[in-house]
Amino acid sequence: MRYHSTRSLVQQLTSREAVLQGLAADGGLFVTDELPELHIDPASLTGGYAGAARRVLGTLLPDFSAEEIAGAVEAAYGNTFADPAVTPVTKIGSMHLLELYHGPTAAFKDVALQMLPQLMSRALAGTGRRLVIATATSGDTGKAALEGFADVPGIGIAVFYPDGGVSAIQRLQMATQKGVNVEVAALRGNFDDAQSAVKALFASPLKAELAARNITLTSANSINIGRLAPQVVYYFDAYRQLTEAGVIRQGERIDFCVPTGNYGDVLAGWFAKTLGLPVRRLIVASNANHVLSDFLETGVYDRRRDLVRTSSPSMDILVSS
Ligand SMILES: *Cc1c(COP(=O)(O)O)cnc(C)c1O
Hints:
Oligomer: single chain
Radius of gyration: 19 Å
Shape: globular
Strand content: 15-25%
Number of strands: 10
Bound molecules: pyridoxal-5'-phosphate
Number of helices: 13
Mean pLDDT: 93
Helix content: 25-40%
């Protein structure tokens, strides 16, 4: 099984290498064409959240050994989440809520960002390579990434957030982060400016200078397949919980409605559907910065508009990955 850039078929990478590189050299994201053949039957999932995680991650990242995946799952979810179900499904009226907020920073991004460093450190082990993570944040990614990467051997992390563009709690969460390998900086501008600054770093001579010292500059933004794959898990696990609770029959199709900024999370839902999860509709929920839903409706990506600061800053995005 190989991963290639969304912009070319030339480079064919293993999942280990795709996790380490994050973003393809041509600016594309790493994807695979083999999802439909990989088929995961939700009826075959056993062993709670950890079991679902081992199965889905083992399928999407097949050149990690079963021991590596099991170790990563235990380190990421073994005792870091406040709820034993990790991401419990609860009933609200006639609908159900997938509670993704029981992780160490209370952001849903913990689910992915507790796992990504575990995958990266296992892919690095024995290679002599080191990683530097540079990440822009609109509030939630930064703290969740810092928490996931803090003191992970062989990896350093720098987080850039827009000055005044994150909540007071998010700023304090980041500014007080513990760890020998973490740096946090505020940039003048909005999230898109911070994201552009980080993307410019990737295109700058710094990348080659680090490479000469066997250090790979990479990202923890939602463009990394090692961050997307752990999100596919909770779509399958939500379905498992609903069938085990007798809410739905095995094979019955369900809808997911997903709050959406960069479309990373809902892309994971599409991966799940393509892998065979009985999903009827994926409904995207936007806030006032609905450039991507406009794009899907009109076919035109028109970013010539002002960024609106909302009470959901993690969705305040105009320049999507
Ligand atoms: C990051 C974030 C989003 C947007 O997620 P995407 O994967 O970029 O679509 C939405 N809501 C919250 C609370 C977030 O932290």
